[in-house]
Design goal:
Number of strands: 5
CATH architecture: 2-Layer Sandwich
Largest sheet: 5 strands, mixed
Low-confidence stretches: none
Shape: globular
CATH topology: Nucleotidyltransferase, domain 5
Number of domains: 1
Order of helices and strands: HEEHEHHEEHHHHH
Helix content: 40-55%
Radius of gyration: 19 Å
Mean pLDDT: 93
CATH class: Alpha Beta
Strand content: 5-15%
Strand order of the largest sheet: 3-2-1-4-5
């Protein structure tokens, strides 16, 4: 690749990251120093936990490639996840709510609980929260709902990568226990393969019994666990 093309790509990436940073810069201009982005992974699957992450990116630190986790390949997401979690300058926290609690609370309240856990687990106490797509009523911190935050906001995009990668790794561990369900491929979402495995084997303890079609299977006692 010619040097000129490389410089153009670098300039484009810098401009993209600067655009992602606009929201944090605006919040910091109001006097807030530690702005945490918050996102979740796993609201829609039939199995596994819902995971939230909170991330405070220090001012001036840019990591190339940070974006909405859904836009990234698994390899790129893993690389950026390592950069985020290995850098001592970056404060991050993770919250995990298990399927049994999802069934008890409902998925919305479980997501809120996971986000609250993630904020509580931050190494640095934040003074402002930017939350992807959800109005989070934190008892002591101002929080702003950001629609499409994982593609519009730098710290939320970082949190989306941490949440997604954390949940995917948990689902790979779950796959080792119940390999017949293919959790390593679909991560608990209702793919045809997953639905076929459910019909054949019945729900496991990590399936969400308040979600269809698992709910109907449980009511018909179509479970082997």
């Amino acid at each position: 690749m010619k040097k000129g093309n490389q410089e153009q790509i670098q300039e484009y990436e810098r401009d993209r990251l600067d655009s992602l940073l606009a929201m944090e810069l605006q919040i910091r201009s109001l006097g807030y120093r530690f702005v945490a982005g918050i996102d979740e992974a796993g609201r829609g699957p039939l199995a596994g936990p819902v995971v939230a992450a909170a991330c405070i990116m220090p001012e001036g630190l840019l990591i190339a490639g940070i974006d909405d986790s859904k836009k990234l390949t698994a390899a790129v997401r893993n690389t950026i996840y390592r950069q985020l979690t290995d850098d001592p300058r970056i404060s991050f926290g993770v919250g995990i709510v298990l399927p049994s609690d999802i069934d008890r609370l409902n998925i919305f309240q479980a997501t809120v609980q996971a986000m609250m856990q993630a904020v509580a687990n931050l190494q640095q106490t934040p003074d402002y929260l930017l939350v992807d797509g959800l109005k989070l009523a934190h008892p002591s911190l101002p929080a702003q709902k950001v629609i499409g935050g994982d593609r519009r906001c730098y710290s939320i995009a970082a949190a989306s990568i941490i949440a997604k990668e954390t949940r995917d790794r948990l689902m790979l561990e779950i796959h080792e226990t119940w390999p017949a369900y293919g959790f390593d491929k679909h991560k608990g979402y209702g793919t045809p393969y997953h639905l076929e495995a459910l019909q054949k084997h019945g729900p496991t303890p990590i399936h969400r019994r308040s979600f269809e079609p698992v709910k109907s299977m449980v009511s018909q006692q179509l479970t082997f666990f």
